[in-house]
Design brief:
2 copies of one chain form a homodimer. Helices cover 57% and strands 7% of the residues of chain A. By secondary structure, chain A is mainly α. Chain A binds a DNA duplex (30 and 30 nucleotides) through α3 and α4.
DNA sequence: TGATTTGACTTTCATATCGCAATCTATATA
DNA sequence: TATATAGATTGCGATATGAAAGTCAAATCA
């Protein structure tokens, strides 16, 4: 039996609760980060993230993200074994939230030193920075997918 | 022994990871919502939220939020039994992230019908709406605390 | 072409966390 | 003094996590 996220049933019609049910765990946001900001799209690439997610958890979370319409799975056109995961438009729309979250962390915890250039760009132009990342993610998909 | 949040140790210096370690569970964001948007500050008020958090979980999360500098605990000046929880400035700075998250949910899941007026206000003036909520939270604290 | 390796999972299992119910403590009220 | 209330803590079965090992099909090597 495969592992599930806690409380998979809808608890309320509140948008905060809806978000919690999608991204409210220890790994989903990190996977979204790698996909949206780092141009990662393979199982092995997500697995290689600094925080070292276990393979069973990663598989569960990718399925979870697909179920909730944040990622789509494709066959790697250049390797029959490979799978490629790409963000949907819904996930791309999450970029402003993700980057705002990062900026919040970075403001209050200066020890969060990763993504310093991105944080600087975001502070001088939040909207433009988010849109830039969105466009970059779209281009990356075009480059890799047939 | 009291229950803990998963992975209490710092896994990386990434701001996304830092956020996950603070808000990456099924309840913390809901408590922040009630505190920042609903003027709730008592244990029983948080407990009464629609999603029905258990008392042990709520106690754990309130402690967790205090540890991470998002809330402060006070004695109720009008009832020796009571405790009052209020957001720190760090928590108030989270309001824009929280409201952006809600807007994202609301855009892609129209069944999230709660907070419709807030969502409408946010769409027409994101920054002003967030600042308004921040000021409201500050005023509420002044009103209730000595 | 058979052997080996690789990518993407799935299974196993010990440990940790969740969540319900019951209990506890301090203060307030009748 | 008795009871009610606010804010928790404890016990315990159910569920989720995470490290390691196993599976399997497709690719690469000999």
């Amino acid at each position: 039996m495969q592992s599930k996220l806690p409380s998979s049933g809808t608890r309320s019609s509140c948008p905060v609760n809806a978000a919690v049910e999608v991204i409210g765990d220890q790994w989903t946001l990190l996977i979204l980060r790698d996909m949206l900001l780092q141009e990662r799209c393979r199982f092995s690439e997500f697995r290689g993230s600094e925080e070292s997610v276990a393979t069973n958890i990663l598989a569960t979370r990718l399925k979870h993200l697909a179920t909730h319409g944040l990622i789509e799975k494709f066959k790697d056109p250049e390797d029959g074994r490979g799978a490629l995961y790409f963000p949907t438009e819904r996930a791309l729309d999450f970029i402003p939230v993700l980057v705002a979250t990062m900026a919040w962390s970075n403001t209050h915890q200066p020890e969060t030193t990763k993504y310093a250039p991105l944080m600087a760009a975001y502070r001088s132009d939040p909207h433009g920075t988010a849109e830039g990342l969105k466009e970059r993610a779209r281009q990356f998909r075009k480059k890799v997918l047939p």
